[in-house]
Design brief:
about 260 residues; seven-stranded mixed sheet; 8 helices
């Protein structure tokens, strides 16, 4: 069984998806709302899968001062979200992240699970890839039976999923481009690497346009969509339209209807 660690920050304005507010029609408050919607879908997908959910959060002393809420700790904010969205919130583990960089925090979590707790496999999710469904997580767990490392590639060289059956040197392992860097680290440790299908992650306006178009297309085709994220898209009237002002036929623009 895979322990799936969702590395999460409380979805607060200015902290959650800061580049999205700079590159899309969304404000910082709305970007935080989208971040929470995607996190809710991620937590629900992990709970429904065959994996064990671990919410790995940055405590207040590792957050920027502007993102600290004196009335609600980082842990309490995330536990409140989990309590609202999970069928069995008590089954989810909550542990603080340790480390000064994302690579260090992810690496410390995975290394502890594999080496200290002796789990069969451990995986990292960020919660910004809402199309990670229960089937995605279960498929990754199956691949981890025959591969030491399993990666889910995303746009701009990112990964939305990183699973490990054996440790690697995690120092700088998630440096951009994440997919290539992680494979280099796996090769250095003589670990076999498997891959999942590509899925979008959401950090910029361009990423959001990709997500919105995918959600609307799947919805129109009667296919499964991430529920809370789809509700956000509908509630805010987000749509993607063609922009041929420069004579090009493949330019797209994210708008609010």
């Amino acid at each position: 069984m895979t322990v799936v660690a969702v590395l999460a920050d409380p979805p607060r304005p200015g902290l959650a998806l800061p580049r999205l507010a700079e590159t899309s029609p969304l404000s910082e408050v709305e970007a935080a709302e989208l971040s929470e919607a995607m996190l809710r879908d991620t937590l629900r997908a992990v709970e429904r899968s065959g994996g064990d959910l671990l919410v790995n959060y940055r405590p207040d002393d590792l957050l920027p001062d502007s993102a600290v809420d004196p009335e609600e700790s980082s842990e309490d904010a995330l536990k409140s979200i989990a309590a609202d969205v999970l069928d069995d919130p008590a089954a989810a583990r909550f542990e603080v992240q340790v480390g000064s960089t994302f690579s260090a925090r992810a690496g410390n979590t995975v290394s502890h699970l594999l080496s200290e707790e002796g789990v069969q496999s451990a995986a990292v999710l960020r919660g910004d890839a809402p199309f990670v469904l229960r089937s995605t997580i279960d498929s990754a767990a199956m691949k981890l039976r025959s591969h030491d490392v399993v990666l889910g590639p995303s746009t701009d060289g990112r990964v939305y999923y990183a699973g490990f059956k054996a440790p690697i040197d995690f120092e700088g392992a998630f440096a951009a481009p994440e997919a290539e860097t992680l494979v280099d680290c796996a090769n250095d440790a003589d670990r076999d690497v498997g891959f999942l299908g590509m899925q979008p992650t959401v950090r910029t306006g361009g990423d959001l346009a990709t997500l919105v178009s995918a959600i609307r297309a799947r919805w129109q085709a009667g296919r499964v969509v991430p529920e809370r994220t789809a509700e956000f898209v509908v509630d805010y009237g987000l749509a993607v339209v063609g922009d041929d002002s420069d004579g090009s036929e493949d330019e797209l623009r994210l708008v609010r209807e």
